[in-house]
Amino acid sequence: MSFLKVESDVFHTLQIEKIVLFLLEQQGLLASKLEKLREQHDALEQQPEISQITELREGYRVVGYDLLKLLYFVEMNAIGLRKILKKFDKRFRYRFTDYYVKSRANHPYSQLQQVFKHVVMCQTQICFAFLLVGSISIFNYACAVVGAVSRNLHELQDCQGSYLSIYDPPALPLQDPVVDSIKAAVDRLTHSTNFLNFMAQHALIMQEELPAPAEEQIDEERYHYVSLLLNLANTFLYMVNTYIIVPTADNYSMSLGAAATVCGIVIGAMAVAQVFSSVYFSAWSNRSYFRPLVFSSIVLFVGNAMYALAYDLNSLTMLLLGRLFCGFGSARAVNRRYISDCVPLKIRMQASAGFVSASALGMACGPALAGILQINFKIYKLTFNAMTLPGWVMAVAWLVYLIWLWFSFKEPSRDVEENNSPHASDSETAEKNTLEKGLKQPLLITSEEQQEDDEDAEAEADGSEEVSQESRRPATSIASAYRLLTPSVKVQLLIYFMLKYAMEILLSESSVVTTYYFSWSTSTVAVFLACLGLTVLPVNIVVGSYISNMFEDRQILLASEIMVCVGILLSFHVIIPYSVPQYVCSGLIMFVSAEVLEGVNLSLLSRVMSSRLSRGTYNGGLLSTEAGTIARVIADATITMAGFLGQSQLLNITLLPSLLICVISIAATCFTYNSLY
C-alpha cells in the first residue's frame, strides 16, 4: 500500500473538514450569544435592575461553559488523532506524521493552510497536535471570548454592587471560576509553559490526558492546606537529611577507622533503603497518608540518632545502620500521591512546583547547615561536633515535625476518593445539552469503523493504547508496569538514570576530591555544594519562562545531554595540574546542565508514558524515583570501590562510567528523537 493511499484513507476516515465546520458553526453560535448579551448589557446601563443584572451575569457564564466544552471537544479530537498517527508511525516504521503535516500545511486548499495564516507557529508541537481541528483559530477565538466574558462579568459585578443596599457587604472583584477553567484548557491545548509549569514537571505528578470538566472541581473535603504544608515540609527535611552529611562523611568514616572513600557507602546507604521504601510507601498511600508520614518521621528520628551515636560507640556498623534507617523513612512517594490525589486541580501545578522547590531548597540548605555546625563540645558522654551534629540536629527536627504532624494533619476521607467521579446536577445537565450531541457524534470515524478498530485493538496485544476498560486499569506490579514502557519511555528513564548518576558522583565525592587536590576545609566544601544547590531555582526560572518557549523540549533535551557530556570531559585530570577553576567550572557546567535536563526529561517522560502509569501504586513517579535512586546507589558504590585504587585515581575512574552512560544516552536520544513529542 502506498503512503499516498494511506494518507488519503486517514484523511477520509478522520473527516477533518466535518470537524472544522462543526467548530466554525459553534464559534458562530457563541458569537451570536455574546452579541445579544452585549445588547442587553448596553440597555441595562440606561435602566439598571438587580434581577436583570444577575440574569445577564449567568448568561455570560453559560457562554463561558459552552466555550469550555468546545475546548474539551478540541482536545478530545487532538488526542485521538495523535494516537492514530502514532499507530501508523509504529506500523509502517516511517514518520508518516511529518509527511502528513507537511503535505496538509502546504496545500493551498488545506484547512491547515487557512488557519495557519492567523498564528505564528512557534509553539512546540502545535502543528502536529492540533492539525485535526483547526484549533489554532479557536485559541485566538477563546482568548477573545475570555476577554469579553471576564470584562463584562466584572462590569456587571461593579454595576450590581452600586445598586445593592448600603447594609450589604461589598462584593470582592474575584475572577469567575469559568474564566480560570478556560485559560487552563487553552494552556493545556497549546502546551504553553512557564516557570510554575516547568517546575511542576520535575515532580512527575502525572494527570489524565483528558480530564473531564467536572473533574476540575475536586471535593474540598479532600484538600487541607496545613496537610499540604506538612507534605512539603517532609520533602524539604528529607532532602536536608540526605545532603547534610556530604561535607563531613569522609572525616566521619576516617574517625571510625575506615578509608575516606567509604563515604560513598555511608551516603549511598540511604539510597539503598529508599529503593525498597518507595514501593511500600507508594502501596501504603493507597490506604492512608497520615500513618506513612508518622512512620517515616519515627524511623528518621531513630536513624539520625543512631548516626550521631556511632561516633561515641566507635561503630561503623551503627553509622551505616543509621543511614539505612533514614532511607527506610523516605516518604516522597506519599508526598507525590497526596498532591496528585488530594490537591484541587486549579492549584495542583503550584503544589507540584512547591514540591520541587522544597526539594531544591533542602538540597542547598543541607550542606550549608553542615558548614555552620563547626563546633565541638560534650554533654555527659555524648559528643557534639561537626560529624555528629548533623545527626542530632535532624533528629530534633524530625521530632518537632512529628509533633506538628500528629496534631495538625487531616486524613482525607477515603469515601470521597472512592466516589470522586463527579455527577452532574440537573442544571449542569441542562447546560451541557448544547454541545453534548457534538461530543457524542463519531466525528473521527463512523460507529462501524470505531467498532472494528476496537475489536482489532483487543486482538492485537501489541502494547498500543486501546480504548477498552482493561487498557485503562493501572499497573498492578513492577512487571506489568515495565511492559507498558515503550522505547521512548525507556530512553527517558535511561537519561534520568544518567543525570542522577553524574550528579551523585559530583556531589558525593566532592569532599574527598577537594581535600586531596585543594586541601579544602569542611566549610569550603559546604559553601561550594550550597552554591550548586542555589542554582536550581534561577536556572529553572530561565528555562521554564524563556528557553522552553523558544525551542522544542527534545531540542533542549539533546543540547543539555551534550553539555553534561562536556562538563564530564572538562572534569578529567589529564597531564596539566588540576586547578580550582577547572573543578568549579566543570562541576557547575555539569550540575546546571543536569538540572535543565531533568526538567525537560520529566516533561517528555510524562507525555510519552502510558496514561495507565498516571495512577496506582506502580505509577510513573515511582518508576522515575526508582531509576534515580538506583543510579545514586551505583554511583556511591563506584566511589567506594574506586577508593581501593587510591585517591589519586578516584576522580578519573568515577568519571569514566558517567561519560560512557552519557554517550549511550545521547545515542539513544538520537535514535528515538522523532518519537519525542
What would your notes on this structure say?
The longest helix is centred in the first third of the chain and has 43 residues. The protein has a two-stranded antiparallel sheet with strand order 1-2. The chain is mostly helical. The protein has two domains: 190 residues; 380 residues, Up-down Bundle (Growth Hormone, Chain: A), CATH 1.20.1250.20. β1 and β2 form a beta hairpin. The N terminus is likely disordered. It has 29 helices and two strands.
State the CATH class of the largest domain. Answer: Mainly Alpha
CATH topology of the largest domain: Growth Hormone, Chain: A
Approximate strand percentage: under 5%
Helicity level, as a percent range? over 70%
Give the strand order, joined by hyphens, for the main sheet. Answer: 1-2
Which residue ranges are poorly predicted, with pLDDT under 50 across at least 5 consecutive positions? Answer: 1-14, 112-139, 160-174, 212-219, 416-468
Strand and helix map with partners:
Elements: H1 3-14, H2 16-46, H3 50-92, H4 96-106, H5 111-116, H6 126-129, H7 135-162, H8 177-190, H9 195-203, H10 225-243, H11 249-255, H12 263-284, H13 290-313, H14 316-328, H15 332-342, H16 345-372, E1 377-379, E2 382-384, H17 389-408, H18 414-418, H19 426-440, H20 447-460, H21 478-483, H22 487-508, H23 510-518, H24 522-534, H25 536-550, H26 553-571, H27 580-608, H28 620-642, H29 647-671
Antiparallel strand pairs: 1-2
Helix pairs in contact: 2-3, 2-7, 3-7, 3-8, 3-19, 7-8, 9-16, 9-25, 9-27, 10-15, 10-16, 10-17, 11-12, 12-14, 12-15, 12-28, 13-14, 13-17, 15-16, 16-24, 22-27, 22-28, 22-29, 25-27, 26-27, 26-29, 28-29
Biased composition (Acidic residues): 449-468
Transmembrane segments: 128-149, 225-246, 258-281, 293-310, 316-334, 355-377, 389-407, 493-518, 524-544, 556-576, 588-605, 650-674
Organism: Gossypium barbadense (Sea Island cotton)
